[in-house]
Amino acid sequence: MGTSTDQVKALRERTGAGIMDCRKALAETNADLDKAIEYLRRHGIAKSAKFAAKKAADGLIHAYIHPGGRIGVIIEVNCETDFVARTDDFKNLVNELALQVAATNPLGINREDVPAEVIEKEKDIYKDAARAEGKPDKVIDKIVEGRLVKYYEEVCLSDQIWIKDKDQEKKIGDLVKELSGKTGENIVVRRFTRFQLGEAS
Q1: What integer pLDDT is reported at residue 92 of this predicted model?
Q2: What is the pLDDT of residues 39-97, one digit of tens each?
Q3: pLDDT digits (tens, 9 = 90+) for 74-90
Q4: Could you point out which of 41, 57, 60, 64 has its C-alpha 20 to 30 Å from the C-alpha of 99?
Q5: What is the DSSP string of 58-113?
Q6: Separation between Cα atoms, residue 104 and residue 91, nearest integer Å
Q7: 159-165 long-range CB contacts below 8 Å, 24 or more apart?
Q8: Distance (Å, rounded) from C-alpha 29 to C-alpha 7?
């Protein structure tokens, strides 16, 4: 993933590092602003710890009701300032995230949100399936890991392909990172709840 001028600018403002150092940090961390800050700090390039990622404590709680009133979503997305929270770009992002949750019904936001027992059950299923396909034991673990990545792309919001991306390449996590880079603020999907009519609580 390439790095934009806005991302470099945001990283410089947060760390006090030079342009080339910021570009390298973003390249090494797949343009993840928080990881790039950590990278610069670990390499002694950031000027001080005070530039560490700021707490995202502002933002919006947004409610979306799908036409027909059978599916509803409440989602909280945080940023650092009320100024960013009031921008159309931020509001649009929050709405897109709510639409995504309504359409795909993810289990959680990130991979860490999927219960360990669910992951172990999926792994067992993939192992059994691979053996049933006649795969040799030495490649089964690699096959399981590959299928697990696909599973995360289905059930984790950040790993999901954005439903409006015609090229089916941009993930929800990329969408959040883009606005984070543009605004220079840490943007975090904090939590969501999806309701479906008649669904057991």
Answers
A1: 97
A2: 887 877 765 444 444 567 799 999 999 999 999 999 999 998 999 999 999 999 999 99
A3: 999 999 899 999 999 99
A4: 57
A5: EEEEEEEE-TTSSEEEEEEEEES-HHHHTSHHHHHHHHHHHHHHHHH--SBSSGGG
A6: 20
A7: 159/110, 159/111, 160/100, 160/104, 160/106, 162/96, 162/100, 163/99, 163/100, 163/103, 163/104, 164/96
A8: 12
Which stretches of the chain are assigned E, i.e. beta strand? 58-65, 71-79, 188-196
Q: Output the CA torsion sign for 109, 110, 112, 116.
A: positive
- Beta carbons within 8 Å of 131's beta carbon, 6+ residues apart: 140
pLDDT of residue 154: 92
Q: Which residues contact 159 (CB under 8 A, 6 or more apart)?
A: 110, 111, 152, 153, 171, 172, 173
Query: Above 80 in pLDDT, residue 15?
Result: no
Which residue has 């009701």 as its token pair? Answer: 65
Domains of the chain and CATH, by start: 5-51 (1.10.8.10), 58-110+156-196 (3.30.479.20), 115-155 (1.10.286.20)
